[in-house]
Amino acid sequence: MSHQQHQSDPAQRARLRWRARRGLLENDLIIQRFFDKYEMELTDDDVAALTLLFEEIDNKLLDLLLGRAAPEGDLDTPAVRRVIQLMKDV
């Protein structure tokens, strides 16, 4: 993870976990494993990147997480790419 300040607000992390709940089981499994491993290490940039990712429709999100599509537009940032890679690695 980044060397930035840890995102220490438990309420904000809880809201993010709630928003992470998806309609596709595959997304849920990937995101759940990610949170189980990294939730306590998330930075503000990570939370912002996750917030952008969770605005995507399920099928597009799954394509990003499986590497079938590359981040484009607002998602084409180092923070989003880093979070996607972390999700792929868990």
Which key terms come to mind for this protein?
globular, 5 helices, mainly alpha, DNA polymerase, domain 1, about 90 residues
Give a short synopsis of this structure.
This protein is mainly alpha-helical and 90 residues long.
User: How many domains?
Assistant: 1
Q: Sum up the overall morphology in one term.
A: globular
CATH superfamily annotation: Flavinator of succinate dehydrogenase
The CATH topology assignment is DNA polymerase, domain 1
The total of beta strands comes to: 0
Poorly predicted spans = none
Largest sheet: none
Describe this structure in words.
The protein is mostly helical. It has a single domain (10-89), classed as Flavinator of succinate dehydrogenase (DNA polymerase, domain 1), CATH 1.10.150. 61% of the residues lie in helices and 0% in strands. The protein has five helices and no strands. Helix 3 (44-53) packs across helix 5. The longest helix is centred in the middle third of the chain and has 14 residues, at 25-38. The model has no long low-confidence stretch (mean pLDDT 85).
Which helices and strands occur, and which strands form pairs?
Layout: H1 10-19, H2 25-38, H3 44-53, H4 58-66, H5 78-89
Helix pairs in contact: 3-5
